[in-house]
Every structure is written in C-alpha cells, then in structure tokens.
Amino acid sequence: MHEGLYIAASAGIKQQGKMDVIANNLANLNNTGFKKDGLVFKEMIPPFDRTNSLETARNVLLPADISNENVAYVGINEFFTDHSQGNLTQTGNTLDLGLDGDGFFKVDTPAGIRYTRNGNFRLDQQSRLVTQEGLPVVAAGGGPVLIDAVGGVISIAKDGTVSVGNGLENAAVAEIELVTIKDKKGLQKDGSGLYQNMSDEAVEEPANGVSIRQGFLELSNVNSVEEMTDMISTMRAFEAYQKVIQAIDGADEQSVNNIGRVG
Fold this sequence. Notes:
This protein has 263 residues and is an alpha+beta fold. The chain has helices at 3-27, 53-57, 224-259; strands spanning 37-44, 73-81, 88-90, 97-100, 104-109, 112-116, 122-123, 129-130, 153-156, 161-165, 170-175, 178-181, 187-189, 194-197, 204-206, 211-214, 216-218.
C-alpha cells in the first residue's frame, strides 16, 4: 500500500469519527444540561513502537508486509467534553433546578455515585427527590433528599437548602449536596445526562460559588450554527481526502500500465 494512501485513508476515517461526534451533539441539542463533545487530531510521525497496543491497533488498514514503524498516519490527540455553562431557561416548575456555576448534583445509582447538571427532578412515592429515571438525588451528608411537602410549598435556596411551609413560616427539611470536580477530564458520560468518575485525579470538592436557580433548567451548550458549520467543513475535508486517495490510486495504476511499455 502506498504510504500516502494510508495517511489519507486514516485522515478520512478520523473525519468520519468527527462527523459522528457532531451528529451526536446536534441530536442532544434540546437535552437539558447536555455538554457537547469534540475531537482534536494530530499527525503521528514514525518511528513507532511495534509493541505499543495503541500503535498496533491503528494497523487495521496496513498489509502485513508494511512496517508498523515507518508509516505516518492521522491520529486522535484528544476526545473531550466541553463543560462550559449552558443558558438557563425559566420553567416555573418547583422541582426544576438549574445550576449557575461550575458544579454538579450527585445521583445515587445501582452502579454507584454519578454526577449530573440535569436538574429536571420530581418526587417519588417515598418523598425522595429523584431524576426522571427515578434515581435519588444525594443530600448533604449522604442519603436521599427527603421532602415531605404535604400541605406546604417547597422552596429551594441557592445553596441547596430545601424548606417547606406556607411561604411565611418555612422549615428546613433537607439540603441538596452540590460538588465540583477538580479535573473534569476524568469524567465519562454514562447516559441520561450522568457522568461517572473514571480517574483518581477527578477529585470531588465542595461547590463554592455554585448556586441553584429554582424554577429554571440549564439548556445544552450546543450551538447549532457552530455545529452545522463544523459539519460542512468536516464533510469538505473528508471529500478532499477522498480525492487524494483517488489521485494516488490513479497514479499507481498508470505506473503499473507504463511498466509493461518499457523497452
């Protein structure tokens, strides 16, 4: 295989991967608290370590007779999630809680603690504050957030203190735990707006400077115009790599045909 052909093919495959990321961002445009993802590419220059599993795995396009150490390719430098703040929209619903600032709610799942910025909550039959999937929100100090709101109005302060009363005389009944994550690169999406901590460096800390806005929800931070623009440029890049592959293939075919005419 021509080395240039492999470089162009690997670059084209990475552009397809980027298209998948963009498509996923657009598909989650209207999902509460969704954070967009992105890819960063880099040129991988030989020589490579044949024993490195990452370098070996990239070799799916290479015939066995081409040295792993001598063929450059386009690789993924970073897959990242953009955790920037999304806009807050007012819903007026008592248990819709928007986070203003760099923080997360904690959610107790059968697989362990998860984190979320999707504050579209409800009360279950046990008076627990839960996600729409029925997963309990964690209270300060641990355990579920219990809200017995029979005959009272639920008020949730910016610091997460939950009170129930008639509006004039309110009694604090619970406190929602808010946390920040020191290194968000260690967070991995786990579906339904949840994040799993996958790294020892993703340290959980108290959420200073983070406030709850009752009756609000955080929109996704996906900008549809930016994503569509990025999609167009990615498609053009993919088409350009296709043309490079076709040009190399045509040149190789012409060279083979010309060999027979020598002499």
